Every structure is written in structure tokens, then in C-alpha cells.
Amino acid sequence: MSKARLTVIDIAKAAGVSKSTVSLVLQGSPLVKEATRSKVNATMRELGYVYNRGAANLRQASARSGIIGVVVNDLTNSFFAELAVGVDTVVQSAGFVQFLSNTSENTDRQREVVASMREHGISGLIVSPARATDAADFKPLVASGIPVVVVVRSLPGARMSSIVSDNVRGVAMAVKHLVSLGHSRIAFLGGFPDTAVFAERRSGYRKAMDESGLKFDEELVVPSIPSRAGGVEAIGRAMTISDRPTGAVCFNDAVAFGVCDGLRARRMEPGRDFAVVGFDDVIEAKTAVPALTTISVDPQAMGRRAAHLLLKQINAGKADAENIIAAVRLVVRQSCGTGQSKPEGKLG
Fold first, then answer.
1. Whole-angstrom Cα distance, residue 74 to residue 76?
2. For the CA atoms of 167, 171, 177, 180, what is the dihedral angle to 10 degrees?
3. With contact defined as beta carbons under 8 Å apart, do 6 and 49 qualify?
4. Taking Cα atoms as reference points, which of 137, 251, 141, 138 lies closest to residue 196?
5. What 3-state class would DSSP assign to 323?
6. Angle between helices 19-27 and 55-65 (to 10 degrees)
7. Phi, psi of 25 (to 5 degrees)
8. DSSP-based three-state secondary structure for 279
9. At 305, which helix (H) or strand (E)?
10. pLDDT in tens, 87-108
């Protein structure tokens, strides 16, 4: 089959789908199932269609529709849903459409998603990188002139704009709050230890312990999957420590919610028997029982800020890197109680 004579009908026959489905894929329509989209894209690549006339058509469609790609590492974490809402409010008002994708911490999936978005002619990309992502993974995108804004997790060595929270200061504030309530055995629970965010938050934990005159104990640092289930696991391990903690700063709010679940499973009440502090301040933090003390990042605001930065670069026609560390604040609620009142670590 001659590449010069390839038509949408040829692609449809080769892929075993309808002509209209191929057209929807070319238009970047969200109506097409991901499996079907992948099949059509694979067929076009095999026949050499995407990289000639098809690619030109896709770029023209993108220029009219204004597609912004948003790729996150864990959409099951409500933080990223809120961040995506923040992005959407800004890009919609600017006449752009958001395409959202989840990588589930899989770098292969991330490469596939980014490649597909590039083929569909995205105008820019906002990404929270999966674990083990290398800055080199985004070089082709940057080289092509497509603006990229990295959020939540920094990528050392990457020549891309980024917006991350002040992780060191945030965790340090949380630790000092617990110290002010009389705690000295304070755990740091949750998070993947091979990520930059974990390293920064652990650094803030150790810094605050040192500044408070408390001995840093590696045993009190308990990594886990940064999820609710991971929080249950982390508090379970923390409770086996001989000189166990009386309070904890959690990697994020999801872990904190799991810690509260794990405490209740042991007939301990968060805020009364054990102090819990989260990180993020997702919507559920305010309505949880007890309401969660946490470090507020304001995920929707971070999404809006990332979108404004990306649109600024798109409108300027260049992608000069800007690196922003967003301020955080401690929001005190009920999950820490009022202070330590019993020698064994119970809270009054």
C-alpha cells in the first residue's frame, strides 16, 4: 500500500474500525476508548501515516481546538483531582481543552501517554512525573518547542518550568506544632523513599527535630505507599517500635486518613490517643472526623498557577523555564488534640 495514497478508509480497514472512529482519533476526541485509540495510532504508525499528512492535520486541529495535556501519577489521590480542577478552570476560560491521563506510577505508561499526546498536537503539557522518571524522558518534547510545566515532583536537571510546594518548611512546621503540644516521639509516616518529594519532606522532619533538641531516630521514619492503605500499613509498623511514637507527621493527607483508620482498628482515637498531621489539605481534610490538622498546599490553586504559567509560555511562543516553590501553611484542626497528658503517649 503506497503511503502517498493512504486515506482514512485505508487506516480504518487495517485497524478494523469505522472511518468515523479514525476521524475522531485524528481530531483528538475524548469519545474514543483508550484501547481503540491505541490500536488506531499503532496502525497509523505501522503504515507511516501519522508522521506525514496525518501529523500535519493533527497539528492544525490542535491549533484550532487548543489541547492541553495533563498527566498525573496517581489520580486515585484526591489531591490530583483537585489540581486538575484548578487547571481546567484556567484553560477553559482561555479557550483550551484539557486532556487528563493517569500513569499509576508507571514510566512506560507515561512515555506512551506523552507520545500519544504529542502525536495529537498538544499545545502544552502539565505533568506530575511517575516514580523513576528521568529528565531525559521529556527532552524530545522540550526540543520540539512544546511548553512543559512539572508539578508536585521536581525533576533535577530538567530544563522545564516547575511548581512544587515548600516541602521542607511544611513538614518542619508540622513537627514543631507537635513539639509545642508536648510530643517528643514523633514519627514520619508514608511516601516512596526514592522520590525527591520524600527526600525534601524527610529533610524538613529531621531539621525540625534537630532544631527542637530532639534526637533523630531513623526507626521513626516509616515509608509506605502514599495512599490510605499505605497509611494503615505505616501506623501498624510504627506501633511495633519498642519506644513507640505518640504522634506523626504524614507524607500526605491520604496517608494521614489511613493512619486514622489504623489507629481506630487498634481502638485508639486520633486526636485523643495519638496526634496526626497530614500534608496537602484536600477537601476531605476539613470534613474528616476528627478534622485533619494538615499542611495546606491548596491543590486547586497549584493547578491554576501551573495553567497560568503554561499559557504564558504558549502565548509567548517560547518555553523559558521558571521554577516556583509555592508557600504552604499549617492548618490546625482536631486530629492533634490539645497536648500530651499521659507518660505513655496518650493525649488529653
1. 5
2. -130
3. yes
4. 251
5. strand
6. 60
7. -65, -45
8. strand
9. helix 299-316
10. 999 999 999 999 999 999 999 9
Residue 62: pLDDT band (50, 70, 90) is: very low
The residues pairing with 97 across neighbouring beta strands, listed in sequence order, are 67
| pLDDT of 50 above 70 | no
Over the stretch 247-299, which tens digit does the pLDDT of each residue have?
999 999 999 999 999 999 999 999 999 999 999 999 999 999 999 999 999 99
Q: Which residue type occupies 5? A: R
With a CB cutoff of 8 Å and minimum separation 6, the contacts of 92 are 98
Dump the DSSP string for 110-141: HHHHHHHHHHTT-SEEEE-PPTT--GGGGHHH
Residue 327, classed as helix, strand or coil, is: coil
- pTM of the entire structure? 0.78
Residue 338 — very low, low, confident or very high, per pLDDT cuts 50/70/90? low
Which grid coordinates are listed for 324?
516556583
pLDDT tens-place string over residues 8-22: 888 889 999 887 788
Instruction: Mark residue 205 as left, alpha or beta (left: phi above 0; alpha: psi -120 to 50; beta: remaining).
Output: alpha
Contact 165, 325 (CB under 8 A): yes
DSSP conformation class of 148: E
> Under 8 Å CB-to-CB from 258, ≥6 apart: which residues?
190, 227, 228, 229, 230, 231, 232, 233, 234, 235
Phi and psi (nearest 5°) for 264?
A: -65, -35
